[in-house]
Amino acid sequence: xxxxxxxxxxxxxxxxxxxxxxxxxxxxxxxxxxxxxxxxxxxxxxxxx
Length: 49
Hints:
The protein is an all-alpha fold. It has helices at residues 2-18, 22-48. It is built from two helices and no strands. The longest helix is centred in the last third of the chain and has 27 residues, at 22-48. The protein starts with a helix and ends with a helix. The model has no long low-confidence stretch (mean pLDDT 84). Residues 1-21 are annotated as: Disordered.
């Protein structure tokens, strides 16, 4: 469920970034990737204890 919510948010960010300037688009995409990496890291921490 959490993944689905994150995917929805990710898609929203991509839609918004399509209307933004190239610099803003890049920043939004980087922020989006950082959020995904943080979520993945948290999942790994939980899985590995």
